[in-house]
C-alpha cells in the first residue's frame, strides 16, 4: 500500500515577507516527508489574535516600548496559522504511528525536544521554539509538515472546523484554568475580558462544575455574551465602585482571576480584588508594565502567574474534555483560505465578533 496520496507537485502558502506586509500566495514544491515527518493537507485553520501580533512584528511593553519579534528569532517570510486540523497525505519512513487519510488536530507549540523543559513535557516553554505558524510554516497554507506523529491528536467526535480552536484558544484557556485549581465550591473566579477566550473560559469552568464566575468587560455586548456563557455576575470595570461591587458580590471570596486582556488596568484590578492567597493568571498580551507594592505580595500572599499556551498533554486532555462537554458551540465564521489576509486585517481592526476559521 502506498504511503502517499498523489498531489500535483506544488502547493500555496499565504505568507508575508516583511512585518505588517501583505499576505501573498507563494507557490512551493510539495515536500516529501523524511524520517518522522508527517505531511498533512490543511482542512481548517483558526485565525488567532496572536497572528495579528506576529504579523505586526511586536508586542507592546507599555510606555511606548515594544518587544520586537524580529529580534526574537522569527525569520521572514512567515506563514501564520497555529490552530490547524489537517488530513495526513504522506508520512516519513519512521512515522509509523501515522496513517494516510487520518484527520488530526496538530499540536503547534513544538520545542527542541531535548532540553530539560521539553523533557518535562513543557515544549511550549522551550527556549529554542519551533512553533508552527510562528517559527515554522503554519496553517495559512494548503499543506503543512509536522516533525513527528506525536504532535497529532485524534479529534474523536468533534466538529473539525471548531476543533481547530483547541490548539491555541482552547488550550490557552484550559491550561490557565488548570493553574487556579483546586478551587473550593464557595470561591469565585473572575474572568477579565469576555471575548473569544474569556467566553471559552466561562464555558470550560461551567463544564468543570465551577459556577461562581464573574465576567468583567468594558463592552456591554461581551458582558451579555459572558452571562449567556454562564457567568453568575457581570461587571463593567470602569464603573466607579467596580472593585467594591465585585468584592461584595463575591462575598470577599475572589480566589482566582483569569486576565485575558493583560494591560496595566486589568492587572491592577485583578490584584486589587483577589483575596489572601489568591491567584492572578495573566493570559492577555495587550501590554504594559506591572507595578505593585511588594509588601502586599507578601502579606496577601498572592501568586502572579503568566500562562502561555499549554502542553501537549494538556491538549490531549482538553480534546477528551471537549468530547464530553459542549465547549465548542461558539459563533464562528468559515472563510476561504485565499482570504487569509482579510481575516487578519478584520481581526486587527476589531471587526470580528466570533472566531474566523479558514477553510482550505
Ligand atoms: Zn493563538
Ligand atoms: Zn527544548
Short description:
The chain has 11 helices and 17 strands.
Could you spell the SSE succession in H and E letters?
A: EEEHEEEEHEEHHEHEHEHEHEHEHEHE
Look at the helices and sheets and give the structural class. alpha/beta
- Strand elements, count: 17
Which molecules are bound besides the chains?
A: zinc ion
- Which shape, going by the Cα principal axes? globular
Please state roughly what percent of the residues sit in beta strands, choosing from under 5%, 5-15%, 15-25%, 25-35%, 35-45% or over 45%: 15-25%
State the domain count: 2
N-end to C-end Cα span: 27 Å
The gyration radius over C-alpha positions equals 21 Å
Question: What does this entry look like structurally?
Answer:
- This protein is of the alpha/beta class and 360 residues long.
- Helix content is 26%, strand content 24%.
- Helix 8 links the parallel strand 13 and strand 14.
- The structure holds zinc ion (2 copies).
- One zinc ion binds next to helix 2.
